[in-house]
Amino acid sequence: MEERFSRTELLIGKEAAVKLSKSRIAIFGIGGVGGYTVEALARSGIGTLDLIDKDTVSLSNINRQIIALDSTVGMPKTAAAKQRVLDINPDIKVNVYDLFYSAESADQFDFTQYDYIVDAVDTVSAKLELVERAEAVGTPIISSMGAGNKLDPTRFEVTDIYQTSVCPLARVMRRELKARGVKKLKVVYSKEEPLTPYETIIDPITNKVTPASIAFVPSVVGLIIASEVIKDLSGPFRNRPTK
Question: What's the pTM value of the predicted model, to 2 decimals?
């Protein structure tokens, strides 16, 4: 009988599908990358998602964020994502946290509850806090490196942070993680040299330069992250025989 996730079960097997349905994953950052990660995890049958982000959907998000629609502009990103996820799977449990993750807010989260953590936040300080907290309790984590100012989605790859090159954000993360004694971190990054935007726009809230982006780059990063989470959680199906 056809069911919501029957095609997934055909591919990975019933045991792995059940495991996914019992898994709880936290996604920190529900933007261009994180939004597509949430989408794919929900469509893969994950049982519980924790969504963490303080931003609201803006008009400029529509070019690249799956939760950004004319009808969702002005909504909290967590609320827009939850609404979409429940429309995909009404049985999924979704916990939302409308906050920016930082050292000050970190104590609100018990990382031992999660089977996997996705880091799709923008700031180095938040990324480092996530990695250190995850490592302290032994919870798997995958981190997104720079996706802004990139145009070639085929250049992204999965590797350890200490095997990265070119990416400015990865360079900073390598230095800071080494100083903290963190020996490994699974990341998604690109060797593509960042492009120079045609115009410099300063974010009035953060006072930082707004990176350029396009529909098919952060989406690919988000889907790659989701695939790594699913493969790591499912385990055995990675070695299943082929025809």
Answer: 0.95
